[in-house]
Design a protein that fits this description.
Blueprint (H helix, E strand, L loop, with lengths): L1 H17 L19 E4 L6 E7 L4 E8 L7 E6 L10 E6 L7 E4 L15 E8 L4 E8 L6 E9 L2 E2 L2 E2 L6 H4 L2 E5 L4 E2 L21 H28 L1
Antiparallel strand pairs: 1-2, 1-13, 2-3, 3-8, 4-5, 4-9, 5-6, 7-8, 9-12, 10-11
Subcellular location: Membrane
InterPro entries: AIR12_DOMON (IPR045265), DOMON_domain (IPR005018)
Protein name: Auxin-induced in root cultures protein 12-like
Length: 237
């Protein structure tokens, strides 16, 4: 009886917390009046991506945000043109140390990695750090017609001679990749829009991968809750 009660509370709390781990898209503001059209909370490493994509010119402007695991850490965001893997990723890496500039890396193997040109013309590589997060900004020119990408992201603890050291091999580090449809994602409502003029209606498209992930975990939490509730009553009576 007491065990089932404990069980009930444990799972209820677990399901409550599991859906509130990731950084949320709202409540973000970037310096220099930088704004983006779309946002997606990524399902691993508490990361978030904001972007503006212009399909007519294939230009992508992005801000990737994640908490680096240490004060001397790094964060990376990449497009892999071929598959959802680290190898082959065309990566952008930013460092918590402001003296090290963000750079591009063509990831051809496991460590060590070194800066190199990548498949996509890249400009405006910048980084910005707060007490809790590091953000990487970049503009990429994608091949015409590419709107759905394989995105791979990562964080690491340390840097040696200006180069990122190998990341952890925890489940979160190994699962941090997903498809991203650049024409979808959560619409960002900027602080500049006045409350009286309604924000443009979000497109009637399906939610992003991260959005549906969140929805799924909410549904799962509800279902779990009812199963536990039901079991709890069976134990009681
Ligand atoms: C941001 O926008 C405001 C209002 O448009 C302007 O006064 C300010 O100079 C801008 N700041 C930067 C850094 O561009
Ligand atoms: C993500 O955030 C949660 C809650 O703040 C924290 O418990 C967890 O360790 C973080 N995960 C990573 C990989 O930083
Ligand atoms: C990245 O590395 C691969 C494998 O070595 C090579 O084929 C490709 O040309 C490189 N890309 C660029 C932009 O240098």
């Amino acid at each position: 009886m007491a065990t089932s009660l404990l069980f009930f509370f444990f799972f209820s709390f677990a399901s409550l917390f599991s859906s509130s781990m990731a950084l949320s898209c709202s409540s973000f503001s970037f310096s220099n009046n930088r704004t983006f059209v779309s946002c997606s909370s990524l399902p691993h490493l508490n990361a978030t991506i904001h972007w503006t994509f212009d399909p007519s010119t294939s230009s992508l402007s992005l801000a990737f945000t994640a908490p680096p695991p240490s004060s001397s850490g790094w964060i990376a965001w990449a497009i892999n043109p071929n598959s959802l893997t680290m190898i082959g990723s065309q990566a952008l890496i930013a460092f918590n140390d402001p003296t090290i500039k963000p750079q591009t890396f063509n990831i051809t193997g496991y460590s060590p990695i070194k800066p190199s040109p990548i498949d996509f013309p890249t400009s405006d590589l910048q980084s910005e750090s707060s007490s809790t997060h590091l953000t990487l900004f970049a503009k990429l020119k994608l091949p015409q017609g590419l709107t759905s990408i394989n995105q791979v992201w990562q964080v690491g603890t340390s840097v040696t001679s200006g180069l990122p050291d190998k990341h952890e091999m925890l489940p979160d580090n190994l699962q941090s990749m997903s498809k991203l449809d650049l024409t979808k994602g959560q619409r960002v409502t900027t602080a500049t829009s006045t409350p009286t003029s309604p924000a443009p209606a979000p497109p009637s498209s399906a939610p992003s991968a991260a959005g549906s992930h969140r929805l799924l975990s909410k549904v799962r939490a509800r279902v779990l809750f009812f199963i536990e509730f039901f079991l709890f009553f069976i134990y009681l009576f």
